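Final report, results section. Input specification for complex C-07:
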Amino acid sequence: MKEDKSFLIEELLKIQEKSKLHYIEPEEIPKIAKIFRKSPAEIYGIISFYPRLSTNPRGKYLIRVCENLPCHIEGAEEVVEAIKEYLGIDFGEATPDGKFYLEKTSCLGLCAIAPVILINNKPYGHLTPAKVKEVFRGYMEGEND
Amino acid sequence: MIDFKVIGEPIILKNARKICPEDIEKCMAVGRCSALKKALTEMTPQQVVEEVKKSQLRGRGGAGFPTGLKLELAAKESADVKYVVVNGEEGEPGTFKDRIIMEDVPHLLIEGTILAGYAIGASKAIVCIRCDYIHAIERMQKAIDDAYKKGFLGKNILGTDFSFDMVIERGAGAYICGEETALLEMIEGKRGEPRKKPPFPPQKGLYGKPTVVNNVETLANLPFIIKEGADKFLEFGVEGSHGTKLFSLSGDINWRGLIEIPFGATLREIINLAGGIRHGRRLKAVILGGVSGTLVKSDEVDIPVDYKSLGVIEAGPGCGTVIVLDETRDIVDVAENIMEFFKTESCGKCRPCSLGTVTLCKLIHKIKTGEGTVEDLEKIEKVSIGMRKASFCGLGQTAPNIVYQSIQKFREEWIAHVKGGTNV
Ligand SMILES: Cc1cc2nc3c(=O)[nH]c(=O)nc-3n(C[C@H](O)[C@H](O)[C@H](O)COP(=O)(O)O)c2cc1C
Ligand code: SF4
Ligand code: FES
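Structure output:
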């Protein structure tokens, strides 16, 4: 096997980062498949393996919450409940306006400030159900747009 | 920002957050890249390998494999191309040491990686960093760019005939991609499923070429070993475990963060360095080496965290992750949380692991909710043993570790749940 000029996974991440809804748009698949000499089906198979990659539109704000042990110990469950209640969505769902999408993630290496969530990769640590509302207010009112 | 503390003389975090890594001049003024100069101008690759072997450095990614031996295996192979792969995937819950190395001392890692490349005769390094580590990626990219500008990377490094390139490839967030052969699959643009071993990467690695895969912290030790010499490195730590170790501390302790400390401290000492158990509570247990590691009971914490001492209880320091549980924690709840993680992260390639994690989650949940029987508990033990024996890779083999040990060490608590009572 020969070395490729670029890395497929890295390229897929880049393509996804171009999308405002954090996903790989369907028209991109045949293009990337051609560059890497794979079939579109193979590309779909590869994307589906990696938790960070998605072929489904997510939301303008991708919220990722960690519930692994260090976060769990610090009360991640209550924080998750508060987020779900506040936004009215469950994991794998977007708010009706497509603004927020909620997703579970494994440990983010931020366990020292657990419990942690990421909103479009921006970390919010030491969360409590009360703080959740504060964090989201800025996004709700468009201050963080 | 994650806090860190250094106990004694540091090897890794020496100038961390004192000297900005974005200023390569300042890093060089305090000795950065002097090990590289020494190696390239005064030492043969063979001598670099020998020095690392002499230092007894062991891999910091979890398995503790002797680094010098790994370098030697790859150095011995003859091939047109060889690679160094830097494993910065760091996905073990509770672990954040590699993040801090890449964010705060990226030049140290880069220098160590070039040294490894020189030692084995590689021409290229691929630094794999999980995509979530945005700041680490930025810092590493800047440091790599600066190293090229200074002539530490690229063609004819420091005027010698050694040329070496370095690129970053981001990982897309699968825990299994921290496993070295799965990582190679990911770099090759495939699904990150582990490969059959042997052949091992030093013989047949990336694109079938001899490859050394090392953890970030492991490689960050090389500049010290080369510059100060293996003898100086051996002065750190205790017999069989030399140098310092980074420990990621989280859970029910007063201070959560990273410490660098010479090998030899006991778990109790480490907990005390973290300000002890919070809320004036008592210690229940420690999860050492990550959720695939060892459950250490409160009466076992006087054991030193080194390879030899822990070997007695068939454990090891692993990647240096310490998750502390106080007396109020429900062991069944902890077990369930851990197994949920493995269920999510099982890659699905083999049945013992993909089915085993699902079965264990179901059984643990049943017991947790008071619906389980003693037979269910026995079944958990049976499935755990089966997974350990039959799983294809380390993930499935170690996934039941904590659950199984918790039943051995806290059986009465499990039984209390079985009977429908709640514990503590
Ligand atoms: C499921 C699994 C996950 C792993 N994750 C990591 C990881 O995130 N980082 C790492 O350096 N090693 C990880 N390892 C260990 C690697 O396979 C490999 O042993 C290590 O990168 C070798 O480097 P070292 O000798 O410097 O420790 C993992 C192993 C397994 C089985
Ligand atoms: S043990 Fe688990 S992670 Fe490893 S190959 Fe099998 S299914 Fe995949
Ligand atoms: S466990 Fe949540 S960030 Fe590590």
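Chain A touches chain B through 37 residues (CB under 8 Å). Chain A has a mean pLDDT of 94. This concludes the modelling results for the funded period.
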